[in-house]
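We close this part of the discussion by returning to an individual protein. Part of our work consisted of pairing the sequence of a single chain with a tokenised description of its backbone. What the numbers capture is local backbone geometry rather than side-chain detail. The amino acid sequence and the backbone structure tokens for this protein are reproduced below.
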Amino acid sequence: MSIAVAAEDPAGADALALVAELSATLAALTGATGQASFDAADVLVPRACFAVARDADGRALGCGALRPLEGGVAEVKRMYARPGTRGVGSAVLAFLEREAAAWGYAALRLSTRRVNARAVAFYERHGYVPIDGYGRYAGSAVSVCFEKRIGA
């Protein structure tokens, strides 16, 4: 399957549909939608983006976002791939990592729920290593935070 990933408006119809699907999936899995930790305005600033993955027919398959966190660190948010798609999450994450490196970030961080074993394994497979909780996740027993060095 051919997958193209590009930055898009987080208020676009496909972006909103993907984020709503992600929220419903997270609510079923973890009991929380994750919406409280994401504001679309955070990706409408310099060195940030909301990305959508599409197939060759233009159908939206998944999404992810990148927002500035602190200094040379950005945060990965709202990662989602529609069920039954293969390689979509990896394609979105690779796009976000390339964008972050081009913008001069030295590292990417993210948080996911410990109970979300698929997400934890996904990030570990892609070179993310566990770190202490940061920001709103500091001291959280339900979250696991990761970081990946991507630049100089």
